[in-house]
């Protein structure tokens, strides 16, 4: 299928390259994204008013797409605040401290637990469950909050989601597009997921330890309050962030410290039995967190419980929107690469268009020679490009189609190329490099998503390079 690339495609690509360059240089990209939306809007509508209104409408679109994540983060943060100020979190994490005694054990321990949980229930609910419990332990033994976020992010949104061996959403999409059985793609992905996971996590851990030793490590904390609250030493009681500890009887603390994890464990069982995943699973976690927040606040504050429940929720939402504030303009720009462009600016792209990002991926596949090595490189680049919309899943069907195209020309390697495109798309777009896609881990840990993306960039690029080379030998 021939894809006609318009000037809009090239302008969008130019802004992507500029944005990535700024991210590498640790500069803010919000203004550039706004300019990009303005430029694309003007090219699509050919009116000043259309391009200007497109900025605001794209912000609304991005907020709608992200609102579920904003809410779950805000609610979990609100719940965690009341657990911190009452000291319940101290009781909850005490049994885990005997296992996570060093920064290294904390990094790998959190990562492996996150990976196993994400295989069954996908990463976003796993971040809320695991981060709230294990993060204080990790910080206490010397692992920076940003290091904990890296572990949860790389193992959950990277390793677990790119293989997706239990729920099998990703391999089904790519396998269907490539005309292959799901089992064939899953089998072919095993060595690639292992190589990508090992190279990326080992590299990230080594770079973290090196920078901490050399004094060049950046914590990336969103605020000083985040740093204080992570180790459970202080915590705000109301929206004004007054640092006051609320005293509960020791027996009640112990009872709640057991009951709360059991409630979340019941959520996990319910997810499995009711086949809940994605938004439904996140909603179950969020609803449970609200009920815990209300119950603990009433027990702790008694006569002031009604007012303090509202205060905790306000603080949670303040934190959530503070974290998401700089992300929404960037997400708004990248969402234009998919279906948002047509919704906001009308039918401007050609009839055969699958969205700006996917059109660029198809065009790339049609402009390179067809052989095993080039096929592997092309599938990695194509997968990474389609992952730039921050979904990870929107472009993996395209990766399957392109893998089928290359495999037909080469005569072999369809399953390996399909799996490679899947791995690249999900590692880039599923939540390890795109700032708004890795928001859950960043927000739970109280760190900047942009700093987390920067820390992940080099390890993920090295991992993709090594994995692509391995795929060349497997095709």
From TrEMBL:
Highest taxon listed in the record's lineage: Bacteria
Coiled-coil features, chain-numbered ranges: none
Claim: Ribonucleoprotein is one of the keywords in the record: no
Membrane-spanning segments: 6-24, 31-60, 66-88, 100-121, 127-143, 150-168, 188-208, 255-275, 281-300, 312-336, 370-390, 402-427, 433-450, 457-474
Keywords: Membrane, Transmembrane, Transmembrane helix
Name of this protein: Transporter
Organism per entry: Paenibacillus hexagrammi
